[in-house]
Amino acid sequence: MANDPSSQNFSNHTRFDPMFHFFSLPVALVSVIVAAVHAYHVPTLMSAWFIVIAIAALVAVLKIRFYALSVQDRVIRLEERLRLSSVLQEPLRSRIGELSDTQLIGLRFASDAELPALFQRALAENLSRADIKKSVTNWRADSARV
After folding, report:
1. How many Å separate Cα 100 from the centre of its chain?
2. Closest CA to 136 of 104, 113, 114, 103
3. pTM value?
4. Residues 14-28, buried b or exposed e (16+ Cβ, 10 A)?
5. Which has the closest alpha carbon to 112: 89, 145, 78, 146?
6. In the prediction, which pLDDT does 11 show?
7. For range 67-89, the mean pLDDT
8. Residue 17: predicted pLDDT
9. For residues 71 and 74, what is the distance between their CA atoms, to the nearest angstrom?
10. Which of 8, 14, 50, 146 fits a disulfide with 35 by CB distance 3.0 to 4.6 angstroms?
11. Distance of CA 31 to CAs 21, 49, 51, 113, Å?
């Protein structure tokens, strides 16, 4: 992701967490492979147990990441419902509940000025999260995403 929030857009908004993406996840994956290879060459109960431990570590690393992302998505949905309530006028305001969770998450990048029109399009065309993000012309950066 770009350091300057104003330069964030659809093509560069994905964020990598170096400790997760480039350390914890690869180490957990490699550990499963190493344990499996070791168990193949030295087929003992202890070798099999190391496979179980390595798989448990991989599952833990993935679950920890997905739990954090789930919590963030819940917060984003709440923030966007509040923002939509303050930006939209009736009759659009009363239709906020019609948006899917992923549509709410996609709308977070739209500026307040373009939010009403994009909100209407999202409902009318049943836009996906990616389609909503691709439609944003004045990108509202989200640099706090983990």
Report:
1. 15
2. 114
3. 0.74
4. eeeeeebeeebbeeb
5. 89
6. 65
7. 94
8. 83
9. 5
10. 50
11. 15, 13, 8, 49
